[in-house]
Amino acid sequence: MEEINATIVALLASDGRMSFTELARRTGLSVSAAQQRVRRLEQRGVIKGYGAVISAEDIGLPLMAFVSIKPFDPASPDDTPDRLKHLGAIEACHSVAGDANYILKVRVASPGALEELLQQIRAAASGRRVEGTLRIRTVVDRRLDANVGGDSVVQVSLDGSPAEIIARIEEYRTAGVEHLVVSFEADDLQTTLHDMRRFAAEVCPAFRKPRECSA
To answer: Looking at domain 57-207, which CATH architecture does it have?
Structure first.
Protein backbone atom coordinates (compact mmCIF):
# COMPACT_ATOMS: atom_id res chain seq x y z
CA MET A 1 0.00 0.00 0.00
CA GLU A 2 1.23 3.49 -0.83
CA GLU A 3 2.39 5.52 2.14
CA ILE A 4 -0.20 8.22 1.50
CA ASN A 5 -3.00 5.65 1.41
CA ALA A 6 -1.74 4.11 4.64
CA THR A 7 -1.86 7.56 6.23
CA ILE A 8 -5.43 8.08 5.03
CA VAL A 9 -6.49 4.71 6.43
CA ALA A 10 -4.86 5.47 9.80
CA LEU A 11 -6.54 8.88 10.00
CA LEU A 12 -9.97 7.51 9.16
CA ALA A 13 -9.50 4.60 11.57
CA SER A 14 -8.98 7.10 14.39
CA ASP A 15 -11.78 9.42 13.24
CA GLY A 16 -14.25 8.03 10.71
CA ARG A 17 -16.07 11.38 10.56
CA MET A 18 -13.01 13.36 9.48
CA SER A 19 -13.94 15.74 6.68
CA PHE A 20 -12.22 15.63 3.30
CA THR A 21 -10.95 19.14 4.01
CA GLU A 22 -9.23 18.02 7.22
CA LEU A 23 -8.01 14.82 5.56
CA ALA A 24 -6.47 16.90 2.77
CA ARG A 25 -4.81 19.22 5.28
CA ARG A 26 -3.32 16.31 7.24
CA THR A 27 -2.00 14.52 4.14
CA GLY A 28 -0.92 17.46 2.00
CA LEU A 29 -3.36 16.54 -0.79
CA SER A 30 -5.99 18.67 -2.44
CA VAL A 31 -9.55 18.08 -1.23
CA SER A 32 -10.54 16.43 -4.53
CA ALA A 33 -7.46 14.17 -4.49
CA ALA A 34 -8.17 13.09 -0.90
CA GLN A 35 -11.79 12.34 -1.81
CA GLN A 36 -10.77 10.30 -4.86
CA ARG A 37 -8.30 8.24 -2.84
CA VAL A 38 -10.90 7.50 -0.17
CA ARG A 39 -13.41 6.42 -2.82
CA ARG A 40 -10.84 4.09 -4.41
CA LEU A 41 -9.99 2.60 -1.02
CA GLU A 42 -13.70 1.97 -0.46
CA GLN A 43 -14.11 0.38 -3.89
CA ARG A 44 -11.11 -1.91 -3.29
CA GLY A 45 -12.58 -3.03 0.03
CA VAL A 46 -9.72 -1.62 2.09
CA ILE A 47 -12.24 0.61 3.85
CA LYS A 48 -15.23 -1.62 4.49
CA GLY A 49 -17.44 0.88 6.30
CA TYR A 50 -17.73 3.47 9.03
CA GLY A 51 -19.21 3.06 12.49
CA ALA A 52 -19.63 4.64 15.90
CA VAL A 53 -17.62 3.61 18.97
CA ILE A 54 -20.23 3.33 21.73
CA SER A 55 -19.70 3.88 25.44
CA ALA A 56 -20.83 0.52 26.79
CA GLU A 57 -21.11 1.94 30.31
CA ASP A 58 -23.57 4.60 29.19
CA ILE A 59 -25.87 2.11 27.47
CA GLY A 60 -26.02 -0.15 30.53
CA LEU A 61 -23.40 -2.77 29.61
CA PRO A 62 -20.44 -1.91 31.87
CA LEU A 63 -19.16 -5.44 32.44
CA MET A 64 -16.87 -6.90 29.78
CA ALA A 65 -15.43 -10.40 30.00
CA PHE A 66 -13.55 -12.87 27.84
CA VAL A 67 -14.73 -16.46 27.71
CA SER A 68 -12.52 -19.28 26.49
CA ILE A 69 -14.00 -22.47 25.07
CA LYS A 70 -12.20 -25.77 24.66
CA PRO A 71 -13.78 -29.13 23.73
CA PHE A 72 -13.30 -31.99 26.14
CA ASP A 73 -12.95 -34.26 23.10
CA PRO A 74 -10.61 -32.83 20.41
CA ALA A 75 -12.35 -35.01 17.83
CA SER A 76 -15.75 -33.39 18.42
CA PRO A 77 -17.30 -31.29 15.58
CA ASP A 78 -15.97 -27.75 15.32
CA ASP A 79 -19.38 -26.08 15.35
CA THR A 80 -19.03 -23.73 18.33
CA PRO A 81 -19.80 -20.50 16.39
CA ASP A 82 -23.02 -21.96 15.00
CA ARG A 83 -24.07 -23.06 18.48
CA LEU A 84 -23.54 -19.58 19.94
CA LYS A 85 -24.63 -17.21 17.18
CA HIS A 86 -28.05 -16.66 18.77
CA LEU A 87 -26.52 -15.09 21.90
CA GLY A 88 -26.59 -11.33 21.38
CA ALA A 89 -24.32 -10.56 24.35
CA ILE A 90 -21.38 -12.06 22.45
CA GLU A 91 -19.64 -9.10 20.82
CA ALA A 92 -16.94 -11.12 19.06
CA CYS A 93 -15.89 -14.74 18.61
CA HIS A 94 -12.25 -15.46 17.76
CA SER A 95 -10.78 -18.78 16.66
CA VAL A 96 -7.40 -18.96 18.39
CA ALA A 97 -4.29 -21.11 18.59
CA GLY A 98 -3.26 -22.35 22.01
CA ASP A 99 -5.03 -24.07 24.87
CA ALA A 100 -8.50 -22.81 23.92
CA ASN A 101 -10.22 -23.16 20.55
CA TYR A 102 -12.31 -20.00 20.78
CA ILE A 103 -12.21 -16.76 22.76
CA LEU A 104 -15.46 -14.82 23.13
CA LYS A 105 -15.69 -11.13 23.99
CA VAL A 106 -18.94 -10.46 25.84
CA ARG A 107 -20.66 -7.44 27.40
CA VAL A 108 -23.38 -7.61 30.04
CA ALA A 109 -25.08 -5.38 32.59
CA SER A 110 -24.08 -7.08 35.84
CA PRO A 111 -22.38 -10.10 37.43
CA GLY A 112 -25.81 -11.75 37.56
CA ALA A 113 -26.24 -11.23 33.81
CA LEU A 114 -22.76 -12.67 33.25
CA GLU A 115 -23.72 -15.71 35.32
CA GLU A 116 -26.80 -16.23 33.19
CA LEU A 117 -24.82 -15.78 29.97
CA LEU A 118 -22.17 -18.30 31.02
CA GLN A 119 -24.91 -20.80 31.77
CA GLN A 120 -26.38 -20.18 28.30
CA ILE A 121 -22.96 -20.62 26.69
CA ARG A 122 -22.31 -23.82 28.59
CA ALA A 123 -25.73 -25.19 27.61
CA ALA A 124 -25.29 -24.26 23.95
CA ALA A 125 -21.67 -25.44 23.75
CA SER A 126 -22.21 -28.70 25.60
CA GLY A 127 -19.20 -30.98 25.75
CA ARG A 128 -16.85 -28.03 26.02
CA ARG A 129 -14.99 -26.43 28.90
CA VAL A 130 -16.01 -22.80 29.48
CA GLU A 131 -13.77 -20.40 31.44
CA GLY A 132 -14.18 -16.67 32.06
CA THR A 133 -11.70 -13.81 32.42
CA LEU A 134 -13.06 -10.55 33.81
CA ARG A 135 -11.82 -7.24 32.36
CA ILE A 136 -10.59 -4.83 35.05
CA ARG A 137 -10.01 -1.91 32.70
CA THR A 138 -8.96 -1.26 29.11
CA VAL A 139 -5.52 0.30 28.90
CA VAL A 140 -5.00 0.37 25.13
CA ASP A 141 -7.70 0.45 22.49
CA ARG A 142 -6.40 1.71 19.16
CA ARG A 143 -9.93 2.47 18.01
CA LEU A 144 -10.10 5.10 20.72
CA ASP A 145 -6.61 6.43 19.92
CA ALA A 146 -5.51 5.63 23.49
CA ASN A 147 -2.27 7.17 24.73
CA VAL A 148 -0.59 4.77 27.13
CA GLY A 149 2.93 4.91 28.42
CA GLY A 150 3.56 1.19 28.97
CA ASP A 151 2.49 -2.15 27.65
CA SER A 152 3.47 -4.56 30.44
CA VAL A 153 0.91 -7.24 31.23
CA VAL A 154 0.62 -9.32 34.41
CA GLN A 155 -1.89 -12.00 35.34
CA VAL A 156 -3.02 -11.44 38.92
CA SER A 157 -3.21 -14.41 41.26
CA LEU A 158 -6.52 -14.72 43.12
CA ASP A 159 -5.04 -16.67 46.01
CA GLY A 160 -5.68 -15.26 49.46
CA SER A 161 -8.18 -12.86 51.00
CA PRO A 162 -9.62 -9.82 49.19
CA ALA A 163 -7.23 -7.58 51.16
CA GLU A 164 -4.27 -9.67 49.99
CA ILE A 165 -5.44 -9.52 46.37
CA ILE A 166 -5.87 -5.72 46.60
CA ALA A 167 -2.38 -5.38 48.09
CA ARG A 168 -0.97 -7.55 45.28
CA ILE A 169 -2.59 -5.38 42.63
CA GLU A 170 -1.31 -2.22 44.35
CA GLU A 171 2.23 -3.63 44.23
CA TYR A 172 1.94 -4.20 40.49
CA ARG A 173 0.56 -0.69 39.93
CA THR A 174 3.35 0.86 42.03
CA ALA A 175 5.86 -1.07 39.91
CA GLY A 176 4.40 0.53 36.79
CA VAL A 177 2.42 -2.43 35.48
CA GLU A 178 -0.51 -0.96 33.54
CA HIS A 179 -2.41 -4.00 32.24
CA LEU A 180 -3.65 -6.48 34.83
CA VAL A 181 -5.46 -9.66 33.77
CA VAL A 182 -7.65 -11.64 36.16
CA SER A 183 -8.42 -15.19 35.05
CA PHE A 184 -11.12 -17.36 36.65
CA GLU A 185 -10.36 -21.01 35.91
CA ALA A 186 -12.17 -23.16 38.43
CA ASP A 187 -13.04 -26.73 37.48
CA ASP A 188 -16.79 -26.14 37.67
CA LEU A 189 -19.10 -23.32 36.60
CA GLN A 190 -20.53 -22.54 40.05
CA THR A 191 -17.09 -22.03 41.57
CA THR A 192 -16.05 -19.81 38.67
CA LEU A 193 -19.18 -17.66 39.08
CA HIS A 194 -18.66 -17.46 42.84
CA ASP A 195 -15.09 -16.24 42.31
CA MET A 196 -16.25 -13.64 39.78
CA ARG A 197 -18.94 -12.28 42.09
CA ARG A 198 -16.49 -12.17 45.01
CA PHE A 199 -13.93 -10.26 42.96
CA ALA A 200 -16.53 -7.80 41.65
CA ALA A 201 -17.96 -7.15 45.11
CA GLU A 202 -14.84 -7.14 47.31
CA VAL A 203 -11.82 -6.25 45.16
CA CYS A 204 -12.89 -4.16 42.19
CA PRO A 205 -14.45 -1.30 44.25
CA ALA A 206 -11.02 -0.57 45.77
CA PHE A 207 -9.87 0.63 42.35
CA ARG A 208 -13.09 2.17 41.14
CA LYS A 209 -12.59 5.37 39.19
CA PRO A 210 -14.59 6.67 36.22
CA ARG A 211 -14.37 4.13 33.40
CA GLU A 212 -11.59 2.23 35.18
CA CYS A 213 -13.27 -0.79 36.74
CA SER A 214 -16.16 -2.36 34.86
CA ALA A 215 -17.34 -4.91 37.39
So the answer is: 2-Layer Sandwich (3.30)
**Which residues share a beta bridge with 64?**
107
- CA angle, 184 as apex, 183 and 188 as ends, to 5°? 155
195 vs 76, 100, 162, 201, CA distance in Å? 29, 21, 11, 10
Separation CA 42–CA 53 (nearest Å): 20
Report the sign of the C-alpha dihedral through residues 188, 200, 166, 69, in that order.
positive
Local confidence pLDDT in tens for the 215 residues of the chain: 788 899 999 888 888 888 899 899 888 888 899 999 999 999 999 998 887 777 777 788 888 888 888 888 877 778 888 888 898 888 888 888 877 888 888 888 888 888 888 889 888 888 788 877 776 666 565 555 433 333 444 556 666 777 877 877 777 666 555 556 666 655 566 676 777 777 778 877 776 654 444 44
Cα angle 60, 62, 67 (rounded to 5 degrees) comes to 120
Q: Which CATH architecture has domain 3-43?
A: Orthogonal Bundle (1.10)
List the domain boundaries for the chain: 3-43, 57-207
